[in-house]
Amino acid sequence: MEGDVMDKVEATATVRDFDPISGSIPATKVEITVSCRNLLDRDTFSKSDPCKFSFGRTEVIDNTLNPDFVRKYILDYFFEEKQNLRFDVYDIDSKSPDLAKHDFLGQVFCTLGEIVGSPASRLEKPLGGIPGKKCGTVILSAEELGNCRDYATMQFCANKLDKKDFFGKSDPFMVFYRSNEDGTFTICHKTEVVKNTLNPVWEPFSIPVRALCNGDYDRTIKVEVYDWDRDGSHDFIGEFTTSFKELCRGQNQLNVYEVINLLGPFFPSQVSLLSFMTLTSLFLKGNPSQSTSLHYMNPYQMNAYAMALKAVGEIIQDYDSDKMFPALGFGAKLPPDWRVSHEFPLCVNGWMTGCVKSFGAIYHLPFLAPRYAAAVQDGSQYFVLLIITDGVISDMAQTKEAIVNAAKLPMSIIIVGVGQAEFDAMVELDGDDVRISSRGKVAERDIVQFVPFRDYMDRTGNHVLSMARLAKDVLAEIPDQLISYMKSRAIKPNPVPVYSPSDEPPTNPV
């Protein structure tokens, strides 16, 4: 509505008279990218905040009349069928999901064939739907998707960026583009904004490899760096180019890039790749870009996996002297030969802090592996293995045997079940009622504690009712399990240190 200060633009699109399930001939999957130019300005004190809806909503972009939407639409393209599409654009004035409460900016009708058949598969059409108004244009681009199903996970930092804010430093963010055959670029990712710094460290992010380069490892990837401004007039700091092949080299001097601004004075800024790995789809158990996935990386809240890590980690870290945890991943293709590894450290030396931050990229992040516990059995250390699972166990016999063997070690196992699956197998592993056994051998101790994460969520399934109660229930059995191990090995606690007055630090005379 006119006069509103809050103004976010998004758009909708729908498929009209088209059911891809009815197609009898194998379809080609194409990716549709949406941009708009010269949209109506429906707000008095700022620009529109557009959002597009196309078989779902795009992201909302603040304060712009020329949005380039990052979110893509993947459609099945049938050459022999007429596939009608409609795109609607709205200025988002509140958080209400009711479109009637937002300003309509226009709509356009086309067919998927029109987009694919246009020169360079790029169709530009005027928006309509508001009598007597020029509503701007929509630019629709299509690209056939390759067969690459891998995900890339990477993290960047920058050094000595140009200072763009008069009263502060800069609020930098990066925008990634993949190159097209006609020499244009398609936006594929935006980082978060890091406030008031010239040396930002951006969060790790995951992105489909085909979004970056569509499986062509030599294709140019352009990266632009901006200083964020509230009014949408972001200041251009500079840019550089790379390729997926170059990024695969990981952190080294070859992946340190000069940030160049050809229109302004030269400023010695650099962006460096901190980490890089690819995850093979064979082991990826959920698409983090889809809201229906348990692994969905919502920009506004943590997913169930991350919330469980945070709840347990914030309590158990107090019992670790250096607050650092061996963090292992599995199911990733690692350099230099890019073979799939089922056990690898998440950084160069196998140790890292900030497990929750890295979790979004790794999907399954145990704090510790039994191998560590087997190496230290003198009672000087006790280990906790955290397993977060959706409840599906395909190797129950091997799992039982592993737990029976682990019961001899100085360790406990916490299992947090996420999602709505049946957790009968997890309850069996818990062993509270019947001690777990394998091949006729009964576990020496009960070392497993299982809790279903859904018991701690509200009715919407979006918020934890009590992180403290979750942590308490998850960790409730750890003290008794620790004591049972120490007693079974006749390990006694170290004597309490006796301090004398001479141990006290000297006080400053008044």
From TrEMBL:
Keywords: Calcium, Metal-binding, Repeat. Gene3D superfamilies: C2 domain (2.60.40.150). Residues 1-127, 134-257 form the C2 domain. GO terms for biological process: cellular response to calcium ion. GO terms for molecular function: calcium-dependent phospholipid binding; metal ion binding. The keyword Transmembrane helix does not apply. The keyword Lipid metabolism does not apply. Coiled coil: none annotated. InterPro entries: C2_dom, C2_domain_sf, C2B_Copine, Copine, Copine_C, vWFA_dom_sf. GO terms for cellular component: plasma membrane. Belongs to the copine family. This is C2 domain-containing protein.
